[in-house]
């Protein structure tokens, strides 16, 4: 910075000289300010020294800068307000929102996204990590990842249904662009449609069950009589004295097969004649204790460890016999699943979930594959060998729970954990 | 709304800009309250560039209209 010599005036010449220096300095500084404002410098021919001092350009520009600063301050305040409002909307939105960079590394996400798709990680731990690792639990992006398509095309992508961490989502990805139009990242908005999907599946299941029930009842009625005749006549023949061993053996096969057929018919009739529940007030904790006691011999014989985690829960209004049937069926299924599992364990838990009492049966068996899981409540679906199971147990359970106004579902990790859970409405006060 | 008219025809920059800024500073309160607007008449083409760029940074809205032989720059505060 150039220094101005202090004023030491000895004569007029010196005074004029000093005056010129100061005027030159003022013009230079004014020109510097005018240049900052994008305009041309002062022209001495247009603006003489006397007019320059009258106009007071430095004062004018200083006031103008004061207004620029005030405007900036106000704009900043508005921006902070808007940012706070947007942040509040972002955080409290009922949908999952996440922003990732073009390399699919997480920039930020909202509370709902953290709740449903980020487990046990705080913000410092997941920001900067790949979204497919944190949100999907995968080592690489999915084949049809919508975020990748948005990065490649620069256009929004809608996915009707995608499964992440056992839940179903509808996803829209939109490009986030810099002011120059280049891609800054991707905004991913996901709506959790798991409950809706389960409700739809329940409806489909109910319709399927109803149709099969009608068909089953008709078929069972028509087949039962001839089957009874076959069994009756076969038994009569078996009592004949002059039959050879060879013929007796063949007749025995007929009797056994006819009995097996009758069992299937009985199952079908049970299935189609599911009666309306006869309601009583019951404690699910007592029910769990009762069922585990009844099955204790079989549990011990198989060497299975059982654990109970029964929390204080309200009473439910349900048909005790039907609920016992459901619970027994689920525990027996777990026992069957653990037949070849060393150190097999069954955990039965109860807890209150909103207006429902939830009962969970957890086993550490081999699990159920993603392909089979959607089919397990279908009538006649079984993984047991032919002749060992009709495949109606879970369908009947599903029908019973539905008739009680509850829901039943299964989750399974094919690496070795299956959870069956059903909800029953809490008794009305 | 009151209109404060300033005629600076015959002036060239930087005087145009300085006079406009001086008028804005003088009438700051009424302009910011939205009670008045400033209408500048200028025949200096450069002023239609220098005035808007500076005045916009101060938070004002600008409208430049070409008239016969001059420009009319209208300045009001941006709410």
Write up this protein:
The complex is a heterodimer of chains A (429) and B (79). Chain A is an alpha+beta fold and 429 residues long. Helix content of chain A is 49%, strand content 19%. Chain A has 4 domains: 12-86; 93-192, PAS domain (Beta-Lactamase, 2-Layer Sandwich); 197-272, Helix Hairpins, CATH 1.10.287; 280-425, Heat Shock Protein 90 (2-Layer Sandwich). In chain A, a hairpin with a 2-residue loop joins strand 9 and strand 10. In chain A, helix 10 (284-294) packs across helix 12. The longest helix of chain A is centred in the middle third of the chain and has 45 residues, at 194-238. Chain B has a single domain, classed as Translation Initiation Factor IF3 (2-Layer Sandwich), CATH 3.30.110.40. The longest helix of chain B has 12 residues, at 15-26. At the A-B interface, helix 3 of A face helix 1 and helix 3 of B.
Structure keywords:
heterodimer; A: 429 residues; alpha+beta; Beta-Lactamase; Helix Hairpins; 4 domains; five-stranded antiparallel β-sheet; five-stranded mixed β-sheet; 13 helices; 19% strand; rod-shaped; B: 79 residues; Translation Initiation Factor IF3; four-stranded mixed β-sheet; 35% helix
Give me a quick take on this structure.
Chain A has 13 helices and twelve strands. Chain A has 429 residues and is of the alpha+beta class. Chain A has four domains: 12-86; 93-192, PAS domain (Beta-Lactamase, 2-Layer Sandwich); 197-272, Orthogonal Bundle (Helix Hairpins); 280-425, Heat Shock Protein 90 (2-Layer Sandwich).
């Amino acid at each position: 910075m150039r220094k101005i010599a202090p004023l030491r005036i000895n004569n007029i010449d010196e005074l004029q000289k000093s005056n010129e220096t100061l005027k030159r300095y003022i013009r230079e500084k004014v020109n510097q300010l005018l240049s900052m404002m994008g305009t041309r410098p002062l022209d001495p021919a247009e603006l003489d020294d006397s007019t320059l001092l009258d106009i007071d350009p430095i004062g004018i520009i200083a006031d103008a800068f004061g207004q620029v600063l005030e405007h900036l301050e106000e704009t900043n305040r508005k921006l902070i307000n808007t940012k706070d409002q947007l942040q509040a909307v972002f955080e409290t939105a009922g949908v999952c929102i996440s922003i990732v960079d073009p390399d699919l590394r997480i920039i930020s996400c909202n509370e709902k996204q953290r709740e449903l798709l980020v487990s046990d990680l705080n913000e410092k731990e997941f920001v900067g990590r790949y979204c497919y690792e944190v949100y999907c639990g995968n080592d690489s992006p999915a084949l049809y990842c919508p975020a990748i398509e948005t990065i490649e095309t620069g256009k929004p992508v809608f996915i009707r249904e995608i499964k992440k961490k056992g839940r179903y989502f509808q996803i829209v990805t939109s490009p986030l662009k810099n002011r120059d139009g280049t891609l800054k990242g991707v905004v991913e908005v996901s709506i959790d449609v798991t409950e809706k999907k389960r409700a739809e599946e329940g409806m489909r299941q109910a319709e399927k069950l109803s149709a099969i029930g009608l068909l089953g009842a008709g078929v069972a009625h028509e087949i039962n009589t001839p089957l009874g005749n076959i069994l009756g006549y076969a038994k009569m023949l078996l009592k004949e004295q002059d039959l050879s061993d060879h013929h007796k053996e063949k007749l025995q096969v007929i009797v056994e097969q006819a009995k097996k057929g009758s069992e299937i018919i009985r199952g079908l009739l049970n299935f189609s004649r599911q009666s309306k529940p006869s309601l009583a007030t019951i404690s699910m904790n007592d029910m769990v204790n009762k069922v585990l006691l009844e099955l204790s011999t079989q549990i011990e014989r198989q060497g299975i460890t059982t654990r109970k985690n029964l929390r204080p829960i309200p009473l439910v209004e349900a048909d005790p016999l039907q609920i016992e049937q459901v619970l027994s069926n689920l525990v027996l299924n777990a026992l069957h699943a653990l037949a070849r599992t060393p150190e097999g364990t069954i955990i039965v838990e109860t807890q209150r979930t909103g207006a429902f009492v939830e009962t969970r049966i957890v086993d550490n068996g081999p699990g159920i594959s993603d392909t089979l899981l959607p089919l397990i409540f279908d009538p006649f679906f079984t993984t047991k060998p032919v002749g060992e199971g009709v495949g109606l147990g879970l369908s009947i359970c599903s029908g019973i729970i539905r008739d009680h106004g509850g829901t039943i579902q299964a989750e399974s990790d094919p690496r070795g954990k299956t959870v069956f859970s059903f909800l029953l409405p809490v008794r009305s006060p | 709304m009151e209109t404060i008219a300033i005629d600076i025809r015959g002036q060239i920059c930087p005087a145009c800009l300085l006079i406009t800024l001086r008028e804005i500073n003088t009438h700051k309160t009424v302009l910011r309250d939205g009670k008045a607007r400033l209408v500048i008449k200028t025949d200096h083409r450069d002023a239609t560039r220098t005035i808007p760029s500076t005045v916009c940074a101060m938070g004002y809205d600008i409208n430049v209209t070409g008239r016969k032989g001059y420009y009319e720059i209208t300045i009001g505060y941006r709410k």
